[in-house]
Amino acid sequence: MKIGAHVSIAGGIDKAPKRAKECGCECFQIFTRSPRGGKAPELEPQTVKRFWSECGKYGMADYYIHIPYYLNLASVDSDIYASSLLLVAEELDRADAIRAKYVVLHPGSAGNLDVKEGIRRVVDGLRSVYDGREAWSSKLLVENTAGQGKVIGHRFEELAEIIEGVKSPELGVCLDTAHLFASGYDMRNPKKLEKVLDEFDSIVGIERLRLIHANDSKVGLGERKDRHEHIGKGMIGLDAFRGLLRTPRLGGIDVIVETTPERVGEDINTLRRLRVT
């Protein structure tokens, strides 16, 4: 299990490996484009080569891409839906270009639709992305959500429905601890964490879990709000993260922290201490 963080690509993706190293990362996550929208910067061959060189220089063998949050695969707006499908395909292409291991997405919000209908649109969309294309080396991960409004993916049953509907062995899951807690999964000590993992295994399958976002929560259990807090400073607490880092069945799964850049190094150091003490 490697511990890392989401880092900035300001100035180019080739700047990310050094930033990751400076805050104590053993792996890292990035956006490849602005999370606020607009045209994605070209991944020029020389930029990609510099990126690989910097990854080698700073010992970063594993890195991941997060698709911007404006993606909505459940939207009834035809333009938003089409652009979201294109965004997924583009980010998988970009991930392959830089040899990223995984691409993480939030499924989207059902809006005025019934949640079941929203899930169906997510499934249809992802199936269309995969349909008729060569397999990508980078693999797609659906992230669980905090459950605000009609955002899809806050229950394990919804993640399972997406995976079963898409019918791709390549599709995996990224679990975010803050989202888990906010959506009602209590993992505040190792025993409770094991119960949550057992439930995930029985509904989704532990083999589908490929990445973990380790974030504490500003909100209480089941409050269904997405509010990240620094490790040990929120409502989840240190015992949960100690259990997370020491659970044998999670031993090969990397952990990414998504807190503020100014203090993310402290969070990484905290997790590294919890891993051994």
Report on the structure:
The chain is of the alpha/beta class and 277 residues long. The chain has a single domain (3-276), classed as Alpha-Beta Barrel (TIM Barrel). Helix content is 40%, strand content 14%. It has helices spanning 16-22, 45-57, 78-98, 115-130, 156-166, 177-182, 190-203, 238-246, 264-276; strands spanning 3-6, 27-30, 63-66, 102-105, 139-143, 172-176, 209-213, 216-217, 228-229, 254-257. The strands form 2 sheets. Strands 1-2-3-4-5-6-7-10 form an 8-stranded parallel barrel. The chain has a two-stranded antiparallel sheet with strand order 8-9. Helix 3 (78-98) crosses helix 4, helix 4 (115-130) runs parallel beside helix 5 (156-166) and helix 7 packs across helix 8 (238-246). The protein is globular and about 50 Å long. The mean pLDDT is 95.
